[in-house]
Amino acid sequence: SSRASGSEPNSDLCSTSVESIDDPPFTVCGPPGWQNFIGGRYPSDTGDEHDCDILPYLMRLATPGSDSPSKHLFLDLGSNAGQCTYLMASKGYQVVAVEEDQKYIPWLRATISANK
Description:
Layout: E1 18-20, E2 27-28, H1 34-37, E3 41-42, H2 55-62, E4 73-77, H3 83-90, E5 94-98, H4 105-114
């Protein structure tokens, strides 16, 4: 279950969303021009978002012998619009997203709403 404080986001915030190529896929909402940065699909061969790709592997290393990701918590500090947050949630982990920069909060909320 995902939650964020505040009101429901404006649906226009997801007009610049991208869909992951992960299995299962998820949607990440971002500011205008953002989809050009990551190539229109996430993760992109032209963007920086590959830093999330290794996280499921690292979590498996950190939890040897566990066959249930839902028993483990992933803390995403500096979650931005939720790219790594939703990658880990899509793999079954419990996730807490923390973002200090207020300019990303509307897009993080929109991402949460788009994946309910």
